[in-house]
Amino acid sequence: MHSVAEALRLILEAAEPNPAARVALGDAVGSVLADDLASDVDSPPHDKSLVDGYAVLAADLAAGSARLQVLEEVTAGAVPARAVVRGTATRLMTGAPLPAGAEAVVKVEQSALEPAADGSLGWVELHAQGVAAGDNVMARGSSLRRGELVLRRGVRLRPLEIGLLAETGAATVPVVRRPSVAVVATGNELVSVDAVPTAGQIRNSNGPLLLAALGQEGVPAKDLGIAADDPNRLEATVQRGLEADVLLLSGGVSAGVLDLVPLVLERLGVERVFHKVRLKPGKPLWFGVHRGDGGRRLVFGLPGNPVSTLVCFELFVRPALRRLAGRSDWERPAVAALLTHDFAHRGERPTYHPARLRREGPAWHAEPLLWRGSADQRALVEADALAIFPAGDRHWRAGEAIDVLPL
Ligand code: AMP
Ligand code: MG
After folding, report:
1. Local structure of 213: helix, strand or coil
2. Going by CA atoms, what residue is nearest to atom 11 of ligand 1?
């Protein structure tokens, strides 16, 4: 049986990043850039005013104040028609291009306008000490130049990068294609969330749990519903699931008489990479790869118990999805925390035990929660972390340090 680390290594090895695809800028947030991108414009495109004010020659303000003739008024988006020369000024709005000849902009707060009697712009009185060329002006191309590299491949696109890409004309963006995922819950006992379970039945909670986790991860997911424990029907559903890059099945991978998932997967040519991991909960995890006409597919047979499904998703599926999407942040660092209570650990597998993580002063503190095992997802609602108790029987004392995985 593989260790958690070994199982993860095998999964990541199979999860090489997807090929690149072009997506509309509006769909690119969260994706990883697949190519270096250059700007098709200078930014700003002209020497531009950073304030509302008057474009002047610095020499006119050498005495600290001046009375200048106003040539014209230029708003953002308009273009100046006249050059500023000694004794004149042009009224500019923020973002407007600097007129030819002008060197600096004096803020409107430092001015008093004297409109002419005929309604024309007239004269302005400016009061500003030490005006120098370049004051309140952003020079053309000072943010970026046409042809200059804006973003490097491998960057994960945040709203910030989307803004920069919009400025530089990237209407479509080359990204690493995000993996598509199909979700199937298996089990004769399962009914959907809108049904009232009758004798022997329970509601399918793994399906909604996985779809929610995928939604949060920003991955497009398809819900293939519930498949009964019947080899032929399961086979038909799995076949549909193999259209996605990743197929997540829950249930049917342990040692029961109706645990048909491994059998059906192998019948459909999904190559088993491993079955079972030294881990609690989550031991029955099955992982395999299908290589067909449609390309490589990763298949996870997740254990049916809800907490096992969640733990396997966090430890194995989420890192795989991130690597497929070209992300490098698939590693989940554990934090060291001090136990708040004594805890007796038993068993030959490491246990990922639901816990509450709190910061008190300089240290993290972990409280192992009362938990009735892998079918008890109620306890998880109280949890925001998993405390990792290494394999072996040991009485852990309050105050001892332990690794904890924040959820
Ligand atoms: P299995 O591995 O199929 O034997 O399932 C293990 C346990 O998990 C059984 O008690 C199942 O009823 C339960 N289980 C399986 N699938 C689901 C599901 N989708 N939602 C909630 N519980 C499930
Ligand atoms: Mg089952």
Report:
1. helix
2. 304
Ligand 2 centroid distance, CA of 228 (Å): 9
CB distance 250 to ligand 1 below 6 Å: yes
Query: pTM for the complete prediction?
Result: 0.91
Distance from C-alpha of 248 to C-alpha of 261, rounded to nearest angstrom: 11
What is residue 335's DSSP assignment?
Answer: E
Name residue, tokens 């098709």. 40
Q: Over the stretch 48-95, which tens digit does the pLDDT of each residue have?
A: 999 999 999 999 999 999 999 999 999 999 999 999 999 999 999 999
Tokens describing residue 320: 């795989």
Q: What is the tens place of the pLDDT at every residue in 105-149?
A: 999 999 999 988 887 889 999 999 999 999 999 999 999 999 999
* Ligand 1 atom at shortest distance from the alpha carbon of 205: 20
Residue 305 alpha carbon to ligand 1 centre in Å:
5
- Nearest in space to 309 (alpha carbons), one of 205, 179, 219: 205
Q: What DSSP character marks residue 126?
A: E
The length of the chain is 407
CA atoms within 13 A on the CB side of 188: 10
- Residue where the block lists tokens 């424990």: 229
| Ligand 2 midpoint to CA 184 (Å) | 12
